[in-house]
Design brief:
This protein is an alpha+beta fold and 335 residues long. It has 7 helices and 20 strands.
Length: 335
């Protein structure tokens, strides 16, 4: 029997965040025998809603914020003319709009995250957002330039699209990165290519003004008191009946569960379960990210609505997507 891999995604939104189940399954009937895996809600790592995919904005936040006594330096800067501060999202420590004289706007943010992951994966994620093909480690390194972030040396990635983004203008993204201890700091500007190009000198000057100042350490008593005063929901459990022929494997740092399924002729499939904060970057952005992985063109909200169905998952309503294409990495048919 021949097996084609297929990718299915189920998205569930609730007050505690969005649960994403990505299925890469072989097409065959399964034994009805099941086992139950229970994941305490308080053990789930919540990922940032800034952007879908494994990226500086979507690395797990609990790794960075866990441990009540962990102290990160305070970030200070000089705000350039024409820039305005805006409300922080959950994982931004600084957030601005850079505004031009003709109404142009670029988004600027600063995000500290654990120093994990391969640099080329980050570069390819950013390139994917700019509708560019992936590159190798060597090519990713060639696309960087040295940049001053405060008094320290960092890296600057300058990534521009070659086509219009969402039918509008060409996009451009500047990402400055510096690693201090176990934390990587990302400073990012995103907007229309022409405006970001004109604003790049201002962005570089902003980076030079950044300083990392030691925060006052929090003693154990204060940390414990703050932790005790924070409401945490611990009673509900997330349970699933797992087919007997699914093999549970270590989930890795971005997942709360992972399973492998073996089929005929050496065929394999994966089932991944992850949790993201809020809407996890939005359904449309996630769907288009999955479509790019299968070599499919992006869709708008109207087209996506025609392709999705709903289903019951426990007491929740879930959105179900089934996509078929060609694996961007292997070139093999994939679904």
């Amino acid at each position: 029997m021949n097996f084609n891999s297929r990718i299915k995604a189920v998205s569930i939104s609730s007050l505690c965040g969005g649960l994403i189940l990505s299925f890469a399954l072989v097409g065959c009937d399964r034994d009805a025998a099941v086992k139950v895996r229970t994941v305490p809600k308080e053990s789930v790592s919540v990922q940032s809603p800034e952007s879908p995919g494994i990226s500086p904005e979507t690395m797990p936040a609990d790794d960075f914020h866990s441990g009540a006594t962990q102290v990160q330096p305070q970030l200070k800067w000089t705000l350039p003319d024409g820039w305005t501060e805006k409300p922080l999202t959950e994982f931004r420590v600084a957030s601005f709009n850079a505004q031009g004289k003709n109404g142009e706007v670029a988004d600027v943010c600063a995000i500290p995250l654990p120093a994990t992951g391969r640099e080329v994966d980050l570069v390819n994620m950013w390139r994917g957002q700019m509708h560019l093909p992936t590159v190798t480690d060597a090519d990713a390194a060639k696309g960087t330039e040295a940049v001053k972030i405060g008094s320290e040396q960092g890296k600057l990635f300058d990534i521009a699209s070659t086509e219009k983004i969402n039918g509008k203008e060409r996009g451009r993204m500047l990402i400055a990165m510096i690693t201090r201890g176990g934390t990587s700091w990302f400073f990012k500007m995103t907007g229309e290519a022409s405006f970001v190009s004109a604003e790049k000198p201002v962005f570089l000057q902003f980076l030079k003004s950044v300083s990392f100042e030691a925060a006052e350490p929090m003693n154990i008593e204060t940390a414990s008191a703050q932790a005790a005063s924070t409401p945490v929901e611990v009673s509900e459990k997330n349970s699933a009946e797992i087919p007997a022929d699914w093999k549970e494997v270590p989930p890795g740092e971005f997942l709360i569960a992972k399973y492998m399924i073996s089929g005929a002729d050496g065929a394999e499939a994966q089932v991944n379960v992850s949790v993201l904060a809020g809407e996890g970057g939005g359904l449309l952005a996630n769907a288009n990210r999955w479509r790019r992985q299968l070599g499919l063109k992006e869709v708008d909200e109207t087209e996506l609505a025609q392709q999705m169905t709903t289903m019951n998952v426990g007491d929740n309503k879930a959105i179900f997507l089934d996509m078929t294409g060609v694996d961007a990495k292997t070139g093999k048919p994939s679904r």
